[in-house]
């Protein structure tokens, strides 16, 4: 069987592969950052400033993953005739090439499909998504490196300037870029404010309680209003009235979620550094935050010293000028600059000095 379309030419394949590699690289690096923030190794440090850094890195992570989908499909379309070549294995490099393509395709589809389902919070599996997503990302990157190593001479030749580019190949490449760009524009509004009105496939909007999306509601967390609630800070108890009477700070900070969406809001509350001082704890200590939620995977989080000493790290009592909605963590929640939303613990009832 012969395939004569120039869409299957090595020049088209290599150019799409170059852009796909860039998208995967951005997605991989920003994914490593997000994983390290949520599961920090002993050597890892993540600053509290600039306040929008995580918003940018996680937004890039999801947007680059979305952009990779049409690029991956186009790349596979350009090479699928090779599946019909005979013999199946011609040499050791050829075997490595085919094996790397098989592993890379499987890993890439796993990452992109589970990633898209994750942003929509549609978990059709029993495994823990962050660990599986992280592990398979390394498999994907390893197979990419093997594939590039095997195909490098062809890639170099194919990426050289073409003085007489084929019209149909140009049309195929142009369609691929447009499809990838359209996918980005249709979804990036979840984190890019000026695209919100045109991102028809955005999975979050500001049409939510107090203008901020909610991933986990109070009903889902099993939390109800408790008139007898108090906050334990390093063994000292504070009532809601006492917290309200303390010095209040207002800061415009984003909730930036691991699913890629983000939304800025005006938060008002007590700086954590003031709370720790009132309880006799020194500045810059690490703090374990406990929630009234009983069974969630993220019912606790750790605020490292870089955040507890930052005056913008708040025990928030109000959002956009209103008392916190129960779904946003009433009576109080943590809002810290440059943190994933999943670690901005809601329904806080204890701050434990570590």
UniProtKB/TrEMBL annotation:
Q: Which residues form the Oxidoreductase molybdopterin-binding domain?
A: 226-353
Species source reads Kibdelosporangium persicum
Residue ranges spanning the membrane: these are: 16-38, 58-80, 101-120, 132-150, 171-195
Q: Which PANTHER family match?
A: BLL0505 PROTEIN (PTHR43032:SF2), PROTEIN-METHIONINE-SULFOXIDE REDUCTASE (PTHR43032)
Pfam families in UniProt: Oxidored_molyb (PF00174)
Q: Gene3D superfamilies, from UniProt?
A: Oxidoreductase, molybdopterin-binding domain (3.90.420.10)
- In the UniProt record, does the keyword Transmembrane occur? yes
Record's superkingdom? Bacteria
The molecule here is called: Molybdopterin binding domain-containing oxidoreductase
Q: Which InterPro entries match?
A: OxRdtase_Mopterin-bd_dom, OxRdtase_Mopterin-bd_sf
Enumerate the UniProt keywords alphabetically: Membrane, Transmembrane, Transmembrane helix
């Amino acid at each position: 069987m012969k395939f004569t379309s120039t869409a299957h030419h090595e020049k088209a394949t290599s150019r799409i592969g170059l852009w796909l590699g860039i998208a995967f690289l951005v997605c991989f690096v920003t994914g490593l950052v997000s994983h390290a923030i949520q599961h920090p190794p002993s050597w890892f440090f993540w600053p509290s400033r600039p306040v929008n850094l995580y918003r940018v890195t996680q937004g890039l992570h999801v947007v680059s993953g979305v952009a990779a989908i049409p690029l991956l499909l186009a790349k596979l379309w350009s090479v699928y005739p090779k599946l019909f070549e005979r013999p199946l294995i011609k040499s050791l490099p050829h075997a490595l090439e085919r094996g790397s393509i098989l592993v890379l395709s499987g890993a890439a589809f796993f990452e992109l499909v589970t990633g898209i389902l994750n942003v929509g919070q549609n978990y059709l599996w029993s495994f823990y998504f962050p660990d599986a997503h992280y592990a398979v990302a390394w498999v994907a990157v390893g197979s990419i490196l093997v594939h590039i190593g095997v195909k490098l001479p062809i890639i170099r030749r194919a990426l050289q300037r073409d003085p007489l580019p084929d019209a149909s190949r140009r049309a195929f490449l142009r369609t691929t870029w447009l499809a990838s760009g359209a996918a980005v524009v249709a979804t990036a509004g979840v984190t890019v404010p000026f695209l919100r009105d045109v991102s028809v496939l955005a999975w979050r909007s500001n049409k939510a309680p107090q203008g901020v999306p909610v991933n986990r509601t109070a009903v889902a967390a099993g939390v109800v209003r408790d008139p007898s609630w108090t906050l334990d800070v390093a063994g000292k108890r504070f009532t809601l009235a006492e917290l309200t009477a303390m010095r209040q700070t207002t800061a415009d900070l984003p909730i930036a979620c691991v699913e890629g969406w983000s939304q800025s809001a005006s938060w008002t509350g007590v700086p954590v550094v003031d709370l720790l001082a009132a309880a006799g704890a020194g500045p810059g200590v690490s703090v374990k935050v406990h929630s009234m939620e009983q069974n969630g995977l993220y019912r606790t989080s750790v605020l490292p010293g870089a955040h507890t000493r930052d005056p913008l790290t708040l025990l928030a009592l109000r959002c956009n000028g209103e008392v916190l909605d129960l779904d946003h963590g009433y009576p109080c929640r943590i809002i810290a600059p440059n943190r994933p939303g999943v670690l901005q613990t809601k329904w806080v009832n204890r701050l434990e000095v570590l």
